[in-house]
Amino acid sequence: MTTTMDGSAVGYRPTRTLTFRTELRRQASRRRTQLALGFMVVLPLIILIAFEFGDDNGGGSRRSQFAALADIATAGGLNFALFTLLVSSSFLLIVVVALFCGDTVAGEASWGSLRYLLAVPVPRARLLGSKLLVSLFSCAVALVLLTGTALLAGTLRYGWHPLQTTVAGDIASGTALVRLLAILGYLAVSLLVVASLAFLLSVSTDAPLGAVGGAVLLQILSSILDQITALGNLRLILPTHYASAWLGLLSNPVQTDDMVKGVISALAYAAFFFGWAWYRFLRKDVVS
Amino acid sequence: MLSGGAAGGLRRRTVAGMPSALSTRVRRALPRPRLTRRRLITAGVVLAVVLGVVGWAAWPTPKSYLVENQTITVQTGPDGAIPVALDTTYYRPKAASRAHPVGAVLLAHGFGGTKDDVADDAKDLADHGYAVLAWTAEGFGASGGQIHVDSPDWEVRDAQRLIDWLAARPEIRLDAPGDPRVAVVGGSYGGGLALMAAGYDKRIDAIVPQITWNDLANAFLPEATGTGPGSGVFKKVWAGLFFGSGQAADLSAAAALTGPPAGGARTRPGGPSDPSCGRFAADVCRAYLSIATTGTATPDEIALLRRSSPASILDRITAPTLLVQGEADSLFPLSEADANAKGIAAHGTPVRVAWFTGGHDGGAGPQSDQDRVRFLTAQWLDHYLLGKGAVPADSFTYSRIAGIDAQAEGVVALGSVVSEYPGIAGAGTSTVTVRGPDRPIANPPNDNPAAITSLPGLGGGLASFVSGRVVEVPGQHADFVSAPLPSTVDVVGAPTVRIRAASPTGQAVLFVKLYDVDPQNGLTLPDGLVAPVRLTGLPASIDQAAPVTVTLPAIVHEFQAGHLMRITIASADQAYLTPAAPTVYTVGLGGSDVTLPTVDSAPIATTAVLWRWVLVGVLGLLALGLAVGVLLGRRRYRRADRSVHPDHADVPLVVDGLRKAYDDGFLAVSTVDFRVERGQVVGLLGPNGAGKTTTLRVLMGLTKPTAGDIYVFGHRLTPGSPVLSRLGALVEGPGFLPHLSGLRNLELFWRATGRPMADAYLQEALDIAGLGDSIHRRVKTYSHGMKQRLAIAQAMLGLPELLVLDEPTDGLDPPQIAEMRRVLRRYATDGRAVLVSSHLLAEVEQTCTHVVVLHRGEVVASGPVDDIVGDSPSVQFDVSDPVAATAALQAAGVRTVTGESNGTLVVDLDGTPRAEAVAALVRAGVGVDRVVPRRRLEDAFLALVRGDTEGSADR
Questions:
Q1: d(Cα B127, Cα B881) in Å, to the nearest integer?
Q2: Nearest residue of B to residue A8 by CA position?
Q3: A244 touching chain B per CB within 8 A
Q4: Does A80 fall in a domain?
Q5: Which fold has domain B870-945?
Q6: If both were cysteines, with which of A17, B271, B278, B803 could B247 make a disulfide (CB 3.0 to 4.6 Å apart)?
Q7: Alpha-carbon distances of A113 from B535, B691, B821, rounded to whole Å
Q8: Chain B: nearest CA to A202, how far in angstroms?
Q9: What ranges do the domains of chain B cover?
Q10: Span B428-603: which CATH code?
Q11: How distant is the Cα of A113 from the closest Cα of chain B, in angstroms?
Q12: Tens-place pLDDT, residues B470-503
């Protein structure tokens, strides 16, 4: 049996180990992946059916942005997609992202397959890279599926109309579609915080539930703290402070100031957590 | 090494008696309590950062000023001889002194308020370095006197006396003796005072009147065709609120007057107040009662109101004036500030105008507006009071509500700037055509029911903004609608429209409004503003009616493309007093054009631009960081030591002085050396916790050794070493994706190696696993033994040159174990080698060619199995009487006799033949049940294992 200069077996190249494709096949065959993505398709349909029930006899004094967007959710496909995003962004998407990113390494550790991947050997940084890319890809697919289904189902049911907003009046369909994509992009960037936190926890523990739950819990904690105005400027550095800044895209002209700050905040947190995850995993004793 | 062994022993004692699996799990799950220096430093840094951030946010900034509350009694009235006690608060900057005198600001409050209402603004200005004197105007709060509505004889004179008071303070900068450097700032009632005072007192150096009036008569009796307050329509709700808040002041004052010297009681002729007038001065009260009763004002009453209006003295104002007016203000609309601006500027006095989205209806407006007003005020005062900064530009700034602020649930205003104040007529105009037939509309008796357009006094910011609040009464209005707008129109100023009307009484009171109608027919009345019109001399028939031009309220509103414009002419409005008798008017347009004022504006630059650059910087940094990280990783990989140790070049495995202590201080392996040569099947034998698993973990690159090295084919092993690709392993049990079949697991595992599928020898591996059709079932359905066989097959994928198996027979049945032994022996041919770890002697004995015995992290014996498993000099005797037997054996000349339980003796014969020893026992009358020869390895192993089977399995 011949070997190469670095002593590796014939045909072994570190850069060919655990490719994106392989990892994707490993993850895509998982029931939790299929269920989570399936739910992204089902949820808009459930909401759609829910809207078919009964009359709108909601209290007249509701003035929140949420209530306002709910009132006009059936105005067209764009409005419906927007509403679906609004109701999903506060919790569902966080859980889904935490699931994809928190389970990926901790899940392998709990199955015991992590040590065999490392003994292949898949270089640790490469293992993290492949796993993270696949996790983020799954999150992106979930986002697109959710929005796409909502847009499609909403358009089929309510028609293709300009986007109605509470203050910006109507936004022409073409512009509105671009705005919807921008909202999607912003959500994706702000969800990077959850993703990175879940990923950090994932490389730190052998319990997938701990990583997923921990990330979600910390997000909830941040949201709760953000409600306490007494914290003053401290709230500005909370990772969820700018979570709903995308509503600025629904005014005319768009207000992007908070979104810019939100993106900065999200990127800073994500870079910190991802960096920490890499640092930790590259030096860690894998004992599972 | 000795100390390491001691530490290992110590550790073992602490976990003694605990089931090994549990201790392992507990140790993994619980945070390790050991405080290393590194953890201490990390915790310290985190704590410091958290405390620092919290401290930064919570640290109170020391106040830069002193607050002095005092009553200042001023000589006031037409002759300046009536003493009135004013309740004041003086905010003196700590830095101010005779040597460093500062500028002063008189800060006046709004109608119905007190000095406390302006406390926040006062502190702001004091922080900025101004000495601020806030006072409660006479007739309000704890101050004495009566409400004369900014009368030149009373309130204005009060202000002049306060300026005198300031002039006497040593820390106030003086222009001349008795002439302090002073500005007057105030909103609404206070703004009116600022203008009036500037007209009557030349010592005032700058004023910032906000949301205030030009002509009280016009404000309360507006008329939009320009016929003046004499024929104005009475703004009854606002007037009532205005008057009511003055009356209410009486009640609170009665209580407050028991405290400070009751100057008010002395100055009020007639003793206790008239219940219909409260603390209003008699003349003002009389005028109000008369106007409110009739709905019209006599020339005398108009003269009284004008005496309290800046309109009468604008030509005398020389103090540079910053006029701030609210767009959502149905009490003092933008036209009031416009009149003030024109009047003051006509005489060359510097004037600057700013509009914001609040007002008497809209409140303080969003934060961006408040910040802008605060900035403009500071800039104005700094320049005109202290000469600091450049001359403020003439530019006109305004803002428009653009949407809902996602964070604060308030509104967001977009600021715009125009180089020069264009006035409410706008810099340019555009026209929109509206159409509609003439229509009869009914005037309801006594204003009821009437359209609701504004909610005076309830200005919560959104009142004028939510279209749902506007209510039109059917039959009372005529609508004239445009086509959908082809393009968006930004209206900044007062639109005009021509209307006609006919009335059987010859006169009519009408309300003209400009609606924004969205494609869903949603109505928006910008800021809830209407133009009241009183027309006289009307014909009975609309055909003979002459068109009149109506100036609609000035607004800042964006009419979007696709929306409609609608001119509505209504007969009644809840906020106004209309003719009591029911009448039917006929109304129509006097021309189809609505003229809309526009301006050329640019958005006000905000800090947003800065943040965008920060974002670009962050993105750049991240990209750079990522690139550097990748490059460093590659470089490290390239520069990694790939040299081959010459002594071990062709040896599958050399373990050299291996030592591993875990983070929590547990020494799992203290020193281990052994070799695995080609063709060997080496058994790693030891009780649980001897360090087998830890050694294998290091061998797989899962953990880093504390000291020592492992060489695989001469390559020094580090985590992720490429040479690991020549090693197949099963360590600590199987690890599979439970949702996939066995076959798919093997395939995906091989794919993860990135090597060609043909190199996997998948079929051979499958034959070894021997799972049959079960290979297509999901792994989660497998039994323990099936998983174990699959794991061995996975380890053999690609036929690695070194096969490492940890307890391979775990879970296998006897025939499978026998088969596995054959497989392993066969595998080691062709120059391959196998390392098998086990805690079972028989296992190693039957499978391996060589053996390494580990105990407490050290190698206690190693060599070929045959050498080690040879006959031992000791024999085990099972006897009926151990005591007699021991004596008999010792007499027979054996070396040692060790008693065990149940009459078992282990005897070192030391050359004495076994037959002789048995004979000696028989002679001594001891019954011998069994004589078992012992072997070396067993001896050594059992001695180690005896009473020592605990310990942790994960060594």
A1: 103
A2: B723
A3: yes
A4: yes
A5: Alpha-Beta Plaits (3.30.70)
A6: B278
A7: 90, 22, 25
A8: 14
A9: 65-312, 428-603, 608-639, 646-867, 870-945
A10: 2.60.120.260
A11: 4
A12: 788 899 999 999 999 999 999 999 999 999 999 9
